[in-house]
Amino acid sequence: MSGFEEFCGGSEFWNSSLLLNNSWPEFTPCFRYTALVWGPCGWLWVTAPFYLHYIRKNRLYGHVRGNALNICKVFVCLVLTLLVLVEAFVGKEDDMYRNPVSSALYVACGVKAATFLLAAVLTLLSRGAGVTSPCVLFIFWLLTFVAHIIPFYTLLVQEVEDNSYLLFVVFCACITFVGLQFLLHCVAESPPRPVQVTEQGKPPSPELTASFPSKLKTHSIIPEFSRRWTRELAKATVSGKRKPKAERRRGGRFKHPPSLLWVLFRVFYPELFFAHLMRLIADVLQFANPILLSALISYIDNKGENHPWQGWMLVLGFFVVTFFYSMFFNQNSYRSYNIAMKIKTALVAAVFRKSLTMNNEAKREFTTGSVVNLMAIDCQRIQDVASNLWIVLSTPLQIVLAFYMLNDTLGVSFVAGVAVIVALIPINVRISVLARRAQADQLIVKDERVKMMNEILSGMKVLKMYAWERSFEEKIKALRDREVKLLRTAAILNTINSFCWICSPVLVTMASFITYVQMNEQHILEPDVAFVSLSLLNILRQPINMVPSFFSDMVQAHVSICRIRDFLSGEDISCFEVNRNPYAVSYEESRRGILLGVLNAGREDGAKSSDAESSDGLSRGRGISRSTKPAFFLF
């Protein structure tokens, strides 16, 4: 007997025959006292230091007021601690436990009691830090509730209520309070002082006050959409969102970029990493469905040799995998679009700030129309790529996993499908290069057209005076024809690219199945081979179909990044032309001074019409000085 089995009172940690070859899924007592207890409790003890550091550094809301919800949370933790101690005492005196009683029982009860007390402390600290829905505690109570299900049905099947009524009552009370605690953590606390959280005059964002499960499924924004659907959308009614510290520093970090792509990566890589991690987890979970499908087909083929509960567990596995896949997929989509919007906002702000500091030579090169195109079109293209940037990591992972599982199902026949994909890659690469050139030329022609339109509008009087309408109309029409021709070329190339990739899953499936059947006469498309292979090929269809559109967007985004980079690299106004006086008067005194200066200028020069009034009859103030706050513009 090993030391661990002696610690568990002679019970094995894992027994496959007891679990699978049984009328019900029975786990060993050692597994119930160790893995099902140490797992959830270990989660809380491991994440507690990081969570304490988080609430110490990020006190966003202030102090949550005492209410029935947080009082019930602490009270339930104390009740669970008492029940665990009673369970240890009952287990010592009960015949259902092994004799002598294993040390694992006492250790499990001690660990659970200490963990419940830690949960109560973290609940109080979360309330003090203003955290309305702590994710660490929600995950802990979810794991604890799931871990209590196995011992509970074990007691029911073994009919412990007939032999040990007190033990059954104690455990029923324990699992009831654990379920109650889990439901309590599904509800968020009332946020303290919501006016301080949001911007002045705006209602609080529902995301700030939503519970953790609501954030996982993005249910917090549904009421916001419902209100905007029934009412007119106004700027004052848009929900505000408090900027985190990292976002408040983002503007300062964005001012000195050695490279546009590098600075975007340095600013947003933590959020990108977390969003892409959610997507990778969803991709791995997606491949659990073919495995479950193969197991279900095998169960149906050998139904007489298997137990009914195994079929129910397989069906439950489909639901669990689909649920968690949906959760991680939605989190990736939500965070990716948020990051893309932040990137677009940062780029638009950088372009706008640069347009205010450019010198005259740079302004002649980049007209107002080109600046508007940079903010409206190029920044939007970069946002579209940033929202789907997870394809760079997700597509290779899905292809590798799909090919690996196809190799186990079809053998080397899947190489025919790989050959089809490899044959399509150089064709699509060449088409993408041609489309990129067409996009770049189209943007250049568009800038020329916008520049000429601005010149025409600014010199309309001269144009009408000399009757040059026909000549300039032909020039504009020629530029527009060139632009439309380039747009048509790019659209045709993108259509060919998309058609090749859309047909590729069908070609891969046909090539794989035909090769599998023709390689050996004994190869027959049986249900487990056909359905599992089709499931894997359907999973493979999504990344392959998304590649062409993403390549097209990447081409456009690359051109847009180059244009924005060239614009931001333009020369600025010399710093010696701006006088910064650190001893200037305050902002309020400057406002009063400029008003008095204008009034005095009008009164003192009232008698001198030639000096006080200009040719258009307006009074002119002289010798007026004005100081402004940082980040304010003067008009």
UniProtKB/TrEMBL annotation:
All residue ranges annotated as the ABC transmembrane type-1 domain in the record: 277-556
Protein family: Belongs to the ABC transporter superfamily. ABCC family. Conjugate transporter (TC 3.A.1.208) subfamily.
Cellular localization per UniProt: Vacuole membrane
Protein name: ABC transmembrane type-1 domain-containing protein
MF-aspect GO terms: ATP binding; transmembrane transporter activity
Protein keywords: ATP-binding, Membrane, Nucleotide-binding, Transmembrane, Transmembrane helix, Transport, Vacuole
A cellular component term, taken from the record's GO annotations: lytic vacuole
Membrane topology: Multi-pass membrane protein
Disordered: annotated segments: 604-635
Keyword Transmembrane appears in the UniProt entry: yes
Main location: membrane
Segments crossing the lipid bilayer: 35-55, 67-91, 103-124, 136-153, 165-184, 312-329, 385-404, 410-429, 490-517
